[in-house]
Design goal:
This protein is of the alpha/beta class. Helix content is 45%, strand content 16%. The longest helix has 19 residues. The termini are far apart.
Length: 285
């Protein structure tokens, strides 16, 4: 890992000399020898850096947190982009949302390992967003960013389900450490339940019940219902459902598949659970 840090630090400062590069590569093992004769420029070194981060160049180098995916929800665009670039440099995947509404949509439609969430956001503030994510069973670890000097928001955030917080300004290396600490958590036995009316959804066991009676759903029916519940209150159209639940889209499927599954779900779940918003799609209220 020291070699990786040295390479990256040199890349950032543009001070990676040919001699230093050869020394680093030479110390990393014979697998690198074929790359020594690449044209020496910042861009060729950047190419090698990509190989490092994807664990292609040296099989002996392991990343404990390779491919961790981080969602940054921050309205300060400069800060958000700087966090994203720094995380990318450290071999994380990172996406950015600049307001609470966009952040909620991303958090509920994609898998993330950690969410970095600002408290003061336009559209929907961070505390409300955190609470809504927890209410629909989204248990992605959340780190709050706050510029407040009082503990009131911090205490409230932790009480509604946040996992950690950092005051602004903060050190990027400390943020990385906090993200990694949350990434180490292993909670396979935690049961996640979501309630919709008198229906309970256990997302861990993939079980749907009403008054302790199991409602038998097929795999796709469960996935479809769960996606609608995770986007509760927001209509989702057929094309989005096909792409998110089935992973594909074509004209034939568009005409029938979603409607058939929705019809079956309504029969099993009862009236009033899944509504149709004409021109917008289906919604669980």
């Amino acid at each position: 890992m020291n070699l990786i840090r040295e390479m990256r630090d040199s890349l950032v400062s543009h001070h990676l000399t040919r001699k230093k590069f050869r020394r680093i590569i030479g110390e990393s093992g014979k697998n690198a020898k074929d790359f020594i004769h690449l044209p020496f420029s910042f861009f060729s070194i950047l190419f090698l850096h990509v190989l490092y981060t994807k664990n292609i160049l040296f099989s002996s180098i392991k990343y404990d947190f390779l491919n961790m995916k981080i969602l940054i929800i921050e309205d300060n665009r400069i800060l958000a982009k700087n966090i994203r670039e720094y995380l990318t440099l450290k071999a994380f995947q990172a996406e950015v949302a600049f307001d609470g509404i966009m952040g909620k949509e991303k958090a509920n439609s994609e898998h993330f390992d950690v969410i970095v969430l600002d408290i003061n956001l336009p559209g929907k503030d961070g505390l409300t967003l955190c609470q809504e994510l927890r209410e629909v069973g989204n248990n992605t670890p959340i780190i709050f960013l706050t510029s407040s000097n009082t503990s009131k928001d911090v205490v409230k955030g932790l009480n509604i389900g946040a996992d950690d917080y950092m005051g602004k300004p903060f050190d990027f290396e400390e943020l990385i450490s906090r993200i990694q600490a949350l990434g180490r958590r292993n909670i396979p036995n935690k049961i996640t339940t979501i309630q919709v009316g008198d229906i309970m959804i256990d997302t861990t066991k993939r079980l749907v019940t009403r008054k302790n009676e199991t409602i038998e759903l097929s795999t796709k029916e469960f996935d479809l219902f769960q996606y609608l519940v995770q986007n509760r209150g927001n209509p989702v159209d057929r094309q989005v459902l096909l792409e998110k639940v089935w992973g594909e889209f074509d004209a034939y499927m568009f005409s029938r598949t979603v409607d058939v599954h929705i019809s079956t779900l309504r029969k099993k779940l009862g009236d009033g659970i899944i509504e149709t918003r004409k021109g917008f799609g289906y919604v669980v209220s």
